[in-house]
Amino acid sequence: MSTDAQIPIIDAHHHFWDPTRNPHPWLTDDPPIPFRYGDYSPLRNKPFLPADYQELTGHHRIVASVTMEGEWDEADPVAESAWMSRLAETHHTPIAHVARAFLHLANAPEIVGAHAAYPLVRGIRHKPTAAARPDLIEPGTPGAMSDPAWRRGYAHLVRHGLHFELQAPWWHVHELIDLISAHPDTPVVINHAFLPADRSPDALARWREALALAATAPQTTLKISGIGLNGRPWHYDEQQPVIEACIAAFGPERCLFASNFPVDCLCGDFTVIYDAYLAATADLPRADRLRLFHDNAIRVYRLPLQPLAPG
What we know:
This protein is α/β, with parallel strands linked by helices. The protein has helices spanning 3-6, 25-28, 50-56, 78-91, 108-116, 148-159, 173-182, 201-215, 236-250, 270-280, 286-301, and strands at residues 8-14, 61-68, 96-100, 121-125, 163-166, 188-190, 220-224, 255-257. Strands 1-2-3-4-5-6-7-8 form an 8-stranded parallel beta sheet, with helices on both faces. The radius of gyration is 18 Å and the shape is globular. The relative contact order is 0.15.
């Protein structure tokens, strides 16, 4: 057995859903929504459940996994936490869940509290309103991180011991830093490597600057996931510099890997993606690899598992 095959993996971000039984409008309704990976018809109207996940993991040693909200109908987001909790009771997976709440709405305190009543729930994700380009940011935009109503909802996370999962483009980093300054007791997990979708040299340079700034806030952790590109297959040579830049900015103590499946099946196979993660970290000490693939997820999601890295 190879050394890589022995590394235990906690997949820190994937989805379970069943749009044939549950309301996920983006997976069932027409027309399809604009999507960062382009055509997502392979995902539509198809369940993705524990047995489906297990079929994809190949030779990798997945010891636990964390589910991310799947854009359940916004009329009743707490129903997803209830459904996921029942799934976990039956299948013993996921080990933790990140729920959805619309933080700018008046009912945010009620929704956050209702999610927190489920022990499986560890955090909240609400994709804040984002500008299409860096020069289009308008402070205070409704639903943005700088929106006072959004921040009032955000303030309820810490009251329930929940952290925040941020999915936003890197050019909103200054809003993130300001948010953390105002709410320093709420940890933030940045999803999908801060979305380096534009791989031009100038854009990557500015993305690296944003990573460096975000890393100055000790409350942040960076999730290396969802780094596929629209219309292009997942390729190690293209992704390795991105992975290395993430780890260089945040260090192996504050990064963690995840599959983002089934979404990232639009870009590559599960084994292709995790093989690349392992190859990109092959020169790191084993203790750092254990942190990246296993221990950091235990810390971030407060999992009832034993860290393996020494120290």
